[in-house]
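thoughts on my protein:
***
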Amino acid sequence: MIRLPALILNGETLTLEDFADVVFHRRHVVLDPEAVERMESSRRMVEELVMKEKIVYGITTGFGKFSETVIDRNQSAELQLNLIRSHACGVGNPLSEEAVRGMILLRANALAKGFSGIRPAVVQRLIDFLNKGIHPCIPSQGSLGASGDLAPLAHMALPLLGKGEVWYRGKRMQASRALLLAGFDPIELEAKEGLALINGTQMMTSLTALALIASERLLLSADIIGAMTLEALGGIPHAFHPLLQKVRGHRGQIVSADNLRALIQESLLVSHPGQKRVQDAYSLRCMPQVHGASKDAFRYVKNVVVREMNAATDNPLLFPEEDLVISGGNFHGQPIALAADFLAIALAELANI
């Protein structure tokens, strides 16, 4: 077995291939030193805001409806702990190990960008969970989507604090026991850190990334199955002629036709126009157009997902160089939701044909 080099997590360059290596093959992960510096810079900004008792959402105020309620700085840590506790209210079957590993990786990567005001030590503990194979038990139902994956991410964060349950060494156990076995102490959250851990789109992005990985295999399989079907029915590959594809110009169509021609090259089972019939049924003749449109959709969705994998999805976000704290809506799941629906339609079309 080839051992992959460690993945250096910097918040900027994570790929779908990196994601697959960590999720499926347990690739080791380390934090980029420059990411640590960025996190330390935004952390100093949080501490200064708390010390000066500035009114900033989620740092010196409550959450949601309680954003107008100012919190005493001596209660900052308690506020963050209670945020995690109150939002860990998911239900349903637990997410798969792969989905959980994806969530942890993506959340650590988002925090490594350095806009969330969290201590590097907390992000390092997420990475420790990945490297040690400590997987929080996260219920599959409960995400709000429009407000991010608050409930699932709260279940992901609980074990960092020694609470909740995890899978470790093949057994489901209390997080406190797993931490003891792994040689870790529970983390005590400080100002902003609970919010930084749970405000984002990492469950929906992890699930869509996993769907993309499976989709890539299906798209390749579709061309192979199509070529075999063409041979079985004595079909006419003339419909895959490169000139026909070129004058329409869609990339996916061109690639699919190239694949189909390569797969049936020198086949003695296919026919010529007029040999058995003038032209084939749609399901054979239009394979490049249908498979190709799904490939184009896949490529679009992959671009959206990879962009989101490297996005800052917290609220508020801190910009130390500009001395700005900005409250907004980067936690909203709409970009991933629409892309996931598009991918589902594209795969359904493969099944149809």
Summary: The chain is about 55% helix and 10% strand. The longest helix spans residues 202-232.
